[in-house]
Amino acid sequence: MDLVTAVSLFIFLSSVYFATASGITSSNDGSHYALTRTIAENGHFTLDSFDDYAEGNDVAIVDGRLYSDRPPGTAVAAAAIYTLADPLPDPLTPIPSKHDAANPRLPYVLMLPALAGAGTALLLYLLLRQQGVANAAALLTALFFGLGTAHWKYSSVLFSHALSSLLVLLAVYLALRPVRAWRGYALLGFVLGYAVLVEYSNALLVLLVGGYMLVGIRPFTLRHLAQTILPFALAGLLPAAFLAFYNNANFGSPFTLSYAYALNYPWAGEFGSTFSTPLLPGLKAMLYFGEGGGWCGGPCYNQGIFLLSPLLLLALPGFWLYARRARRAFILTTLIFLVYLLLFAKHYTAHGFTGDGRYLVPFLALLALPVGHFLHWLFGLARTTGQVLAETAVFALFYLSLRNIILHIGFSYNYNLDLSQLDPLIVRPENWRYLLQHLFPNVGNLPLLWLVEGVALLCGAAFVWWQQRARQASN
User: Fold this and answer.
1) CA atoms within 13 A of residue 330's CA, in its CB half-sphere
2) What domain range is 457 assigned to?
3) Are 288 and 307 a contacting pair, CB within 8 Å?
4) Is residue 365 part of a domain?
5) Separation between Cα atoms, residue 327 and residue 333, nearest integer Å
6) Closest CA to 7 of 168, 166, 154, 118
7) What are residue 301's DSSP bridge partners?
8) How far apart are CA 407 and CA 402, in angstroms?
9) What tens digit of pLDDT does each residue of 121-179 get?
10) What is the model's pTM?
11) Is 464 part of a structural domain of the chain?
């Protein structure tokens, strides 16, 4: 049953995210996409004729040459998809992209955030099930997270957040597995290394998860360390070596990041100027509402995670239940979330302008874990009037969060939701048709996603069958 539920959850959420995609929407995803195309088509990193996608904003300039100022990991993964998409069918319907709308490979590139976002929700479901949370509570938590937080929005655009979310939760999932062979340590090392390639700030994640892994190694002998730390370090060095090569080739030193040459963000090259917001106002902005950094030319206000997604308030009573049921997991995931909450509360632009605290999106799944434990406890209570009222309140928080996210997407770049176009009689079919058309502009290309997922499922099933046959033959 868990397998059927997991596959259904993944296909449903990836379909929602892919249908929501409206192409390249702004300078941020435009910068990622410009680097994607120049890697796939030109085999180097200067943006060349694709620099217009970055809209003169999210670029780094060195000796007159333009580069993306984004970390390269998202573009590297997208470039692989861009290359593999060449023989695949053309889009079934046009995509309303701000840039490169006629390129038939663009919808396939947009599968990257959709699949990564759905994969994050899937890992959340699997983690909760491993921690003893009932199937219904785990599934509802994954759906609440997938549709009721900013994770939905950033799983439909080519920002780094969806891929970073997947790698963060995959690293946690691998670190919490009770038994790991050397391959498991190698995979964990590679995932953490690639996470840094996707978001530079994930270097802290390497320290936190790596420290957790090191504390748990038993026996602490030289031979056992060679079987654990060595594969972990060697696999992690692979993406680190690529990042060093990328930095050296473009910015003159293996340790110089793209932000040091960011054209419009002169403060981004130094830690002190990047993380310069007073802590308490920053926390208020990240969690609830407040004024953030001033780079946008005036007061910048942010909708914090609890204001945008009030369902996440269920994590507050859930922390105690989570700590009781899975203490080691609670310590690791809560520590990671709190470290990044404090870090981004200090960030110059993490709050304000974008209006959604998006820098915390890769870590929202960690906050959803205690929500799952709370729902498990709530659904396990005796059926009383109080319990029914509590469940009603839970779903009310979800519907309020869902409404906020739908409007948040509809008012984002490259979406044209206009509430004045709705008939006052909200149940009229024309209203629903209008909302669906403007929220899901890419729905016509869903068969392409299902084709890719179907092929992947068949390949996965064939691999499992081959492994089982190989085991039977060896026995």
Assistant:
1) 17
2) 443-474
3) yes
4) no
5) 10
6) 118
7) 291
8) 9
9) 999 999 999 999 999 999 999 999 999 999 999 999 999 999 999 999 999 999 998 76
10) 0.95
11) yes
Concatenated DSSP letters for 176-204?
Answer: T-S---HHHHHHHHHHHHHHHHH-GGGHH
Q: What is the mean pLDDT of residues 253-273?
A: 88
**Is 463 a member of any domain?**
yes
Q: Residue 219 and residue 465: Cα distance in Å, rounded?
A: 35
Tens of pLDDT, residues 325-344: 999 999 999 999 999 999 99
A 10 A CB-CB count for 381 gives: 12
> What is the C-alpha radius of gyration for the chain, rounded to an integer number of angstroms?
22
* Assigned domain for 69 exists: no
Query: Which amino acid is residue 161, in one-letter code?
Result: H
The number of folded domains in the chain is 1
The enclosing H or E element of 120 equals: helix 111-130
Residue with tokens 């936190």: 208
pLDDT tens, residue by residue, 65-106: 999 999 999 999 999 999 999 999 999 999 999 999 999 999
Pick the closest to residue 212 from 172, 166, 167, 170 (CA basis). Answer: 172
Rounded distance between C-alpha atoms, residue 53 and residue 63, angstroms: 20
Burial bucket for residue 135 (CB in 10 Å: 0-12, 13-18, 19+):
middle
Which residues contact residue 388 at a Cβ distance below 8 angstroms, ignoring those fewer than 6 apart? none
- Give the single-character DSSP code of 301: E
* Separation in Å, CA 306 to CA 344, 349, 438: 15, 19, 26
Within 10 A of 298 (CB to CB), how many other CB atoms are there?
A: 9
* Residue 63: DSSP 8-state: T
For residue 77 the two structure tokens come to 């993964």
